[in-house]
Amino acid sequence: MANSPHTPGVVPGRLAREAIEANFSDLHPPLDDHEARVAADRCYFCYDAPCVAACPTEIDIPLFIREIATGMPEAAAKAIFAQNILGGMCARVCPTETLCEEACVRMEAEGDPVEIGRLQRYATDRLMAKGVHPFTRAAPTGRRVAVVGAGPAGLACAHRLAMHGHDVVIYDARPKPGGLNEFGIAAYKTTGGFAQAEVEWLMKIGGITVETGRELGRDLDLATLRRDFDAVFLGMGLAGVNALRAPGEDLENVENAVDFIAELRQAEDLSSLPVGRDVVVVGGGMTAIDAAVQAKLLGAENVTIVYRRAREKMPASEYEQNLAAAKGVRIICEAMPVAVHGDGAVREVEFEYTVETPEGLKGTGERFRLKADQLFKAIGQRLEGAPEGLALEGGKIAVTGPGRTSLEGVWAGGDCTPGEDLTVVAVAEGRDAAEDIHAWLMG
Amino acid sequence: MADLTTEFVGIKSPNPFWLASAPPTDKEYNVRRAFEAGWGGVVWKTLGIDPPVVNVNGPRYGAVWGPDRRLLGLNNIELITDRPLEVNLREIKAVKRDWPDRALVVSLMVPCDEESWKYILGRVEETGADGVELNFGCPHGMSERGMGSAVGQVPEYIEMVTRWCKANTRMPVIVKLTPNITDIRYPARAAKAGGADAVSLINTINSITGVNLDNFAPEPEIDGKGTHGGYCGPAVKPIALNMVAEIARDPETRGLPISGIGGVTTWRDAAEFLALGAHNVQVCTAAMTYGFKVVQEMIAGLSEWMDAKGFASVSDIVGRAVPNVTDWQYLNLNYVTKARIDQEKCIHCGRCYAACEDTSHQAIWMKEGRVFEVNDAECVACNLCVDVCPVEGCITMERLAPGTVDPRTGKVVEADYANWTTHPNNPAAKAAE
Ligand SMILES: Cc1cc2nc3c(=O)[nH]c(=O)nc-3n(C[C@H](O)[C@H](O)[C@H](O)COP(=O)(O)OP(=O)(O)OC[C@H]3O[C@@H](n4cnc5c(N)ncnc54)[C@H](O)[C@@H]3O)c2cc1C
Ligand SMILES: Cc1cc2nc3c(=O)[nH]c(=O)nc-3n(C[C@H](O)[C@H](O)[C@H](O)COP(=O)(O)O)c2cc1C
Ligand code: SF4
Ligand code: SF4
Ligand code: SF4
């Protein structure tokens, strides 16, 4: 008997393979030529455009959209990549509703922004489909830079350094490059193996070698890197996961949401990936939403997100919350987990309602239980394995200006440094650190 | 990377995009910012003899909009610069000194006597400017005073003033033509006869953009009255393209350098002007609509297109389309096409049907289930359905292969070229050999 959403326990194949495939197709399907032309025509080519200021990488949005409007998507792509070499991924994963599109003047005019993200995808897809790389390397400088972490921050940094003629070695603990582009982003945002294709395309600049399976702290140490290279960039993201600190947390089928997502992203066949019938996700950010939505798309019958504070405080954008709701995920706010119950494996999760007080969040005393055969923890990641001797700030690597750490010749950027944890922010920080490293090396 | 540098009547510029003489070039502040944004050159706002003219103090512009309030046509009743000559000359000198690699041409309009022209040419020469452009085009206000288009509409005057200028300056002289005439070739020939180094066109077209239906005043309206102003912007491009082509292919003016003006808004517009024989382009309305930064799209787009096509320099494009501009009588009458509707792309709006059924040749069938198909026996290949169809590429014109029978005429399509000059219906036809 085939499994269904009603099958108890954590089992694979709750839906037919075709249904799962359809569920995981592109969240925002690409624009065709005509749609792109119509969407581009809506841009006003604003002066000192607010959308540009709202883009962490400051892509020249009016210019690239005008280039699409005039039938030159390749020129548009060049304008994008000049600022953001991962413009293809960002076009897919940026929460545009809180970035460029939120700032678009057409939001003010009619509540309907220019579709900047999809236009960016249209342009970048066109150029990347040609398989050519739009930049050439400057003459070799003979300088060598080590980059730790092949996520967006490390890749952006490495690319900009390579463009300036430096030789770069990227070390990454995981078996594949890409960071969370490959292991974290929701599958329906980056379909068709795009993350790896993008890394390969980016590498065409030349001068970059990637060594996977090499972990700082285990296989490498910072002192050696500083000795062997002219500069070091740390873009190691947040490898640690916060614990619930509730009894029963170690029961079977209580998992880190990021591990579930990583497994999902690496699965050859999603219909062989087990998922619970009653899934509970604790957290309120993008990770919680992604874990919940993807569990639902795999065929879980009931998926509930429980967030400890009020709805307005949820880190996930309204758009993301609506997406979850549209897929049938229930969101409960103002409740915190107090215990995980079960016998071997999780059966129920117990929550207590909360209230915001001047002294902080407090339990009200009122409790309830949710049925759960799978519980995902999505209450935040934290820096793990930061090398000794680096000053920290709020649990992350402290930096000044364009990513300078407390150690001479060591830069850092992306999620492992303070600031918003977004792909596009990581790209901006990696790029800016590279410019600073370049100036420092050549100065 | 394609090389966009151009040389026009000996004046070098890093790209073929110049700002036309108009408000964007009316002062130092503007021109410096334009150069910073990337413009290859400017033609300074037209200078005159002091005392300076005065402008109206109410609206100078009227407009025509497309969907989404896109500015398609702009009309203006502005005169030449209203700032003192000395101020302009001082600023021109300062800008040219700081931007030696950019083209800086000065537009001029003074009364029709040689002394006035001689005087102002001398003053401009002192600034180090690269050349002068004679404004024989302004169609409002100045023309009432015997200048601008009042000169440009009389070929003899054009020739006379151009000759005075050539005699009184070593700078290259560009003659800017008005489109408010019946045949653009005559003023162009007159400019050439007078010794002009080049012509530039078009200046603006006489127009009224609308009428206020409450007080019955034409727009733009000044205190209940209005006057015809000069029309420019995307709407005038087709008129300008034709005029440029006419001059480029006229045996009497062939080879005379042309600066193409009129509705240039994107790289593509510029490429079209170049292909029809312009050696560079000038832009006014696009800059006034979108700001100086708009040139960046033009530069990137032109360069991308040239790379894709394998053109190394701008001169490779100039005039490429000119040999293909011909007279109606030489068009191939054996080129037989039929409209074809791509049923996959059709969204069943019926616009093609309305156009053909009501106003053309009843050559589109509307079948059961809103299926639209072309009846080859009636289709004259007018292209109207293509033009009104909202879906790009949905209706195309396909050529009937030679040897097939055209169901409309019942005749076999001939492979050979044949035109009106030898057609049996032409009373003046020359008998074919
Ligand atoms: C589930 C999830 C969904 C998300 N969805 C979005 C989204 O839709 N849009 C968005 O903008 N952002 C999203 N984010 C955030 C975004 O993915 C990150 O902000 C971004 O990837 C940070 O880039 P980074 O390069 O700093 O770190 P990472 O992408 O985390 O890359 C760090 C790399 O360093 C490697 N590494 C770590 N430690 C070591 C070590 N000791 N030695 C060697 N290598 C090491 C890791 O293997 C990894 O490859 C999401 C995050 C998660 C977790
Ligand atoms: C407000 C305005 C003022 C103009 N003033 C002048 C002028 O002083 N001298 C001149 O030669 N042309 C003048 N023109 C005409 C422009 O230089 C140009 O020929 C015309 O606008 C067509 O180009 P466009 O379609 O790019 O605007 C003016 C145009 C406008 C809109
Ligand atoms: S704010 Fe909106 S309309 Fe203005 S330039 Fe940006 S995308 Fe275009
Ligand atoms: S554009 Fe400037 S000068 Fe002209 S009317 Fe508006 S505010 Fe006044
Ligand atoms: S106008 Fe175009 S889309 Fe409309 S019915 Fe005709 S072919 Fe179809």
TrEMBL record, chain A:
In terms of InterPro entries, this protein maps to: DPD_II, FAD/NAD-bd_sf, FAD/NAD-binding_dom, Helical_ferredxn
FAD/NAD(P)-binding domain: from which residue to which, for each copy? 144-430
UniProt xrefs under Gene3D superfamilies: Alpha-helical ferredoxin, FAD/NAD(P)-binding domain
One Pfam short name: Fer4_20
Q: Name a GO molecular-function annotation.
A: iron-sulfur cluster binding
Domain (Dihydroprymidine dehydrogenase): residue spans on this chain: 22-131
So which domain of life are we looking at?
Bacteria
The cross-references to PANTHER family, in alphabetical order and at most eight, read:
GLUTAMATE SYNTHASE [NADPH] SMALL CHAIN, GLUTAMATE SYNTHASE [NADPH] SMALL CHAIN-RELATED
Task: Identify this protein by name.
Answer: Glutamate synthase (NADPH/NADH) small chain
TrEMBL record, chain B:
Q: Any idea which UniProt keywords this protein has? A: Iron, Iron-sulfur, Metal-binding, Oxidoreductase
Recorded GO CC terms: cytoplasm
Q: Does the keyword Flavoprotein apply?
A: no
Q: What class of enzyme is it?
A: oxidoreductase
Question: One GO molecular-function annotation for this sequence?
Answer: iron-sulfur cluster binding
- Might you give the EC number(s) for this enzyme? 1.3.1.1
Reactions accelerated catalytically? 5,6-dihydrouracil + NAD(+) = uracil + NADH + H(+); 5,6-dihydrothymine + NAD(+) = thymine + NADH + H(+)
Q: Mind telling me which InterPro entries this protein's record contains?
A: 4Fe4S_Fe-S-bd (IPR017896), 4Fe4S_Fe_S_CS (IPR017900), Aldolase_TIM (IPR013785), Dihydroorotate_DH_cat (IPR005720)
* Pfam families to which the protein is assigned, alphabetical: DHO_dh, Fer4_21
The UniProt transmembrane annotation reads: none
4Fe-4S ferredoxin-type domain residues are: 337-369, 370-400
| Subunit structure, as described in the record | Heterotetramer of 2 PreA and 2 PreT subunits.
Which PANTHER family did the record assign? DIHYDROPYRIMIDINE DEHYDROGENASE [NADP(+)]
What role does it play?
Involved in pyrimidine base degradation. Catalyzes physiologically the reduction of uracil to 5,6-dihydrouracil (DHU) by using NADH as a specific cosubstrate. It also catalyzes the reverse reaction and the reduction of thymine to 5,6-dihydrothymine (DHT).
Please give the family membership noted in the entry.
Belongs to the dihydropyrimidine dehydrogenase family.
Which protein are we looking at?
dihydrouracil dehydrogenase (NAD(+))
Species for this entry: Meinhardsimonia xiamenensis
